[in-house]
Amino acid sequence: MNKKTAALLFIIIIVFSGVVLFVLQSRTGILFDSGGRYDSTKLDYMNVIYENRSDNIAFNEGYSESDNCPWGFEHNGIDYFLANNSVVIAAAPGHVTNIEWTDYGESEDNRFHIRITIRFNATVELGYNFEPWTQNEAEKDRQLAMFDIEVGDWVDTGEKIANFLNIGDGAHIHFDVIQDNTRYCPKQYFSEEGYIEIMEMIHSFHPTWELCYP
């Protein structure tokens, strides 16, 4: 192997390694660094994703690990049933690592899900799954156009990330907290103020309900 070929091979290896590291960093959070933007040692000051409590038009599902809950089935997050065009805010600070949409097929009333993933630290990420409840691809594109953030952005708690497009009767945002690739009851991550707020919102619809059920 001559020197020119060896140098080219070395460059290819370096570039490939950089791409692999970038993908791993984005997907797994290795080498995560908040850059001093916030304290990322522990997430225990999360808040709600709405600006105004009145933006909630229902509360039908919280977190449950069995069917022993008021909604009668396992559910790995919180569903926020927001009015059309409601402002959606970041529940916690973090790095926007992914925005993607999924098409579940023409037979599904809730055909398009559009998900924002915001990484808080190396092990914790928050998912905002927008479900406008439509079969119309143009309405999916309209929801995407209502996002205020892009992959690579950093957000602060309370910063606007989108407006919500409510089309069908079941339209909502499914919100989850994932730590080490496992979804957990969000209660442990809320600040005291945030937990009081979400429980008061829930109890305005269902006075005896809890946020999470084992």
Question: Could you explain how this protein is built, in words?
Answer:
It is a single chain. It contains three helices and 13 strands. With 214 residues, it is of the alpha+beta class. A hairpin with an 8-residue loop joins strand 6 and strand 7. The protein is globular. About 5% of the residues have low confidence.
SSE layout and pairing:
Elements lengths: L2 H26 L27 E3 L4 E2 L10 E2 L1 E5 L4 E3 L4 E10 L8 E8 L4 E8 L5 H9 L8 E2 L4 E4 L8 E8 L2 E3 L7 H14 L6 E2 L1
CATH fold call? Glucose Permease (Domain IIA)
CATH architecture: Distorted Sandwich
- Helix content range: 10-25%
Strand content: 25-35%
Uncertain segments are 17-26
- Give the number of helices: 3
**Helix and strand sequence:** HEEEEEEEEHEEEEHE
Q: Averaged pLDDT, please?
A: 91
Outline of the structure:
This protein has 214 residues and is of the alpha+beta class. It contains three helices and 13 strands, in the order H-E-E-E-E-E-E-E-E-H-E-E-E-E-H-E. Helices cover 23% and strands 28% of the residues.
Q: Characteristics of this structure?
A:
3 helices; single chain; 8-stranded antiparallel sheet; globular; alpha+beta; 13 strands; Glucose Permease (Domain IIA); 3-stranded mixed sheet; 214 residues
